[in-house]
């Protein structure tokens, strides 16, 4: 049989004790009852004194069972019964002293101010009255005996009060630790949720930027191939070759994104493809040479000085802007201007009007404007998009700064 002193047994008993506080109160009440039974006077119904003492012992034991559920009522009942004990028995007993100490401890662990200190004051006053009315066997030493008993009673009550304060403080620290742990867990859950939302938004933005441009370019070139298939076979062959190349590129991009999502740990290596930068804008515009859009590129500055992160953001902004031109202003002339400044790059994408109303709106979340703004904001830059006052078409302007190492 496993001894009660083993750590495992103590942990199990502590767990039972914490989960069933009423069990502790029941055990305490039983011990108080046993102490009252073995103290003087004995439990009996032979004399009025013994009857009163028996009622006090039973009443105090029952009241202490409810010291957690109804602390004020339980302590009030105990106080009344101790007064009855003082009047009927007319002597200090071990039982009365033990109940008084349990009451003092309970005031600090179960009551709130001002009840806590009011009950403590009543306990001190009751103990003082009991000492004053105590009969002494030696009248000559009456004051000295009373003084020693009063000091001992006050010391014991103070110890019980301090024990209750310590217990209350430990319980408060434990509850505070549980609360902080719960708050930390909730904060971590929110952070994980926000990280997941941010990651999904990033993936959605990448899917939109990567696939949106390729698929729209394929659609526009396929439409153009229908009109030139009989009149210009050479051009049709080149258009179909571009469609095939863009389709394969789109498939490879999707496969790379899926590979990144499937890489659930650091040991899984996802395929790494070169990320596009502003130096690849010329190739991007070249892919659109067989569409009805006429696109001109103007570069001012050295693109090799632009950091890759800024170059990727600028490339995606230009890519999304040209995709919107093909979708909503097919046949319009467009101009892309890239200005490389000191620690910043400025992009301007402008297209002329086709005579049709633009369906792209600044507050429309389905055309990538929000995604472009987020890319610029992530770098500490700005992006504006709206109707161009000079061309009657649409104008996108972005300022993308960076910091020197």
From TrEMBL:
Keyword RNA-binding: no
Coiled-coil intervals: 180-207
Descriptive protein name: histidine kinase
Domain of life: Bacteria
Keyword Transmembrane belongs to the record: yes
Top enzyme class: transferase
InterPro entries (alphabetical): DUF7134, HATPase_C_sf, Sensor_HK_TwoCompSys, Sig_transdc_His_kin_sub3_dim/P
One example GO MF annotation: kinase activity
Ranges of residues in domain Signal transduction histidine kinase subgroup 3 dimerisation and phosphoacceptor: 199-263
Organism name: Kocuria carniphila
Membrane-crossing residue ranges in chain numbering: 20-39, 51-69, 75-105, 117-137, 143-166
EC number(s) reported in the record: 2.7.13.3
Domain (DUF7134): residue spans on this chain: 14-171
The entry's keywords: ATP-binding, Coiled coil, Kinase, Membrane, Nucleotide-binding, Phosphoprotein, Transferase, Transmembrane, Transmembrane helix, Two-component regulatory system
Catalytic activity: ATP + protein L-histidine = ADP + protein N-phospho-L-histidine
Any Pfam family matching the protein: HisKA_3
